[in-house]
Amino acid sequence: MDSNEKIRLQKIIADAGIASRRKAEELIEKGAVTVNGKRAQIGDKADPLKDKIVVAGRQIIVKKSARKYYIMLHKPRGFITTMSDEGGRKCVAELVDEIPARLFPVGRLDKDSEGLLFMTNDGDFANMISHPSTHFAKTYRVTVHPRITEEQLTELTTGVVIDGRKSMPASVRVVTAEKERTVLEIVLEEGRNRQIRKMCEALGLEVARLKRTAIGPVKLGMLQPGKWRELEPDEMRKIRAYQNKLASRRQDDE
Please, are residues 162 and 227 in contact by the beta-carbon 8 Å criterion? Predict the structure, then answer.
């Protein structure tokens, strides 16, 4: 591998399963990454098989045959979507600790939410799904109190101002409507922090339960809370096809 074939540091870090590409860029900016003893800069490249790359005191050891894992996890409520926590809170890492690789979550679900979460050690896969520019759809089943009005339903669909910025239009469907509660299916193509909770709060609705049921074309199905399995080859093909469809749509919009 010559200098023209070196790889960007954020990709090396992501492929090593240490962090997503965006998190890797943050680590580089903070000065937590060195290459052969020198502080790295955004845009730097390296040879992962020859250069000594250290991230937050930990050296990256790359093997050509390192296996990639693509995991579907049913995150239970009460777990945070990180690999470790100084406060001793329960982390999703505990649920996949038998896998012989350092995985990281693709996107997030907050502590009080549950449902489908992908975990991987493939930075490209994580970036494809979680980067804001891809608009990879996520489907949620949301129980709110009290019963939703037509006006509130319209606002959820067309967009709600949260954190000073209006959310993208969403697909919202009423699953069941009772006197004091409504169960909704909400499909989002953006992934802002605690977005559904903030959207509902802005409209005077209380979220009693929030469960992610699908990411793109892949559904949670009957996988039980706290359990995981590897994505099937057919599911991986559907994800790639869906990603290609989104890419074509972005090109048509340009």
Answer: no
Which two tokens mark 230? 């590897």
110 catalytic residue (yes or no):
yes
Q: Which of 2, 15, 51, 110 is catalytic?
A: 110
Q: Rounded to an integer, what distance in angstroms lies between the CA atom of residue 218 and that of residue 116?
A: 9
- pLDDT per position as a tens digit, 174-198: 999 998 999 999 999 988 889 999 9
Judged by DSSP in three states, 214 sits in: strand
CB of 135 within 8 A of CB of 171? no
Q: Is the pTM of this model over 0.90?
A: no
The single residue listed with the structure tokens 């992501």 is 14
- Rounded to whole angstroms, the Cα distance separating 44 from 12 reads 11
Question: Which amino acid is it at 16?
Answer: A
Taking the C-alpha atoms of residue 109 and residue 115, their distance in angstroms, rounded to an integer, is: 8
